[in-house]
Amino acid sequence: MDNARVQLRRLDEDLLTALLDAAVADADPTEVMPPVPGPPGWTADRRAAFLAFHHEWAATPTTYAILVAGHVVGAARLQPAPEAPDDALETGLWIGRSHRGRGVGHAVLALLRTEAKSQGATRIVATTTEANTAARRLLTTAGADLRPRTTPTPNGDTIEATLPLD
Fold first, then answer.
1. Which residue, 48, 126, 152, 154, is the most exposed by fewest CB within 10 angstroms?
2. Could you give the count of Cα atoms lying within 13 Å of 140 in the half-sphere of its Cβ?
3. 89-122: b or e for each residue (b if 16 or more CB lie within 10 Å)?
């Protein structure tokens, strides 16, 4: 992947609509938002919940649409880490299925690292699950230290990652 083709743009109302379109076309709802009761798939209730969830995140200046060649393909966030030292920022991201395995995640993580450094952070923290091998591989390749979370969660085995920015 040509990293120059991958961009982060702060999420706004116009990009939020494109983000929903990308999610519906290229992701399962469980991959991109908290669970919503009801039948599986992109129901009207789930679409509304997606917009509400991401609209709330868009209110923070640290939520981005991921663009590849000008097209929205996912989302990323960078925010103060509530359970980490003051010099850490927390990140999370999702990428549509058709863009996975093409280096987009690596390019996004590089952009997030640069942004975190510009905000004075010395590390990024992330949380994933044991089952999310792609996220674990991305974080490990970037140099993150992965450790099992010591407190149980309802989502199963949770992994906490710390990525130094030096």
1. 154
2. 11
3. bbbbbbbbeebbeeebbebbbebbbebbeeeebe
CA–CA distance, 75 with 9 (Å, rounded to integer): 9
Which residue type does 59 have? A
- pTM given for the model: 0.89
Write out pLDDT tens, residues 38-54. 999 999 999 999 998 88
Q: What token pair was written down for 61?
A: 């200046």
Q: Which residues make Cβ contacts (< 8 Å) with residue 96, sequence separation at least 6?
A: 22, 23, 25, 26, 27, 73, 74
Structure tokens at 66: 């991921």
Question: How many other C-beta atoms are found inside a 10 Å radius of the C-beta of residue 35?
Answer: 10
Report the percentage of the chain scoring pLDDT > 90: 64
pLDDT band per the 50, 70, 90 thresholds, residue 84:
low
Query: Which tens digits make up the pLDDT trace of 93-141?
Result: 999 999 999 999 999 999 999 999 998 999 999 988 888 888 999 999 9
Strand duo 123-129 + 158-164: pairing: antiparallel
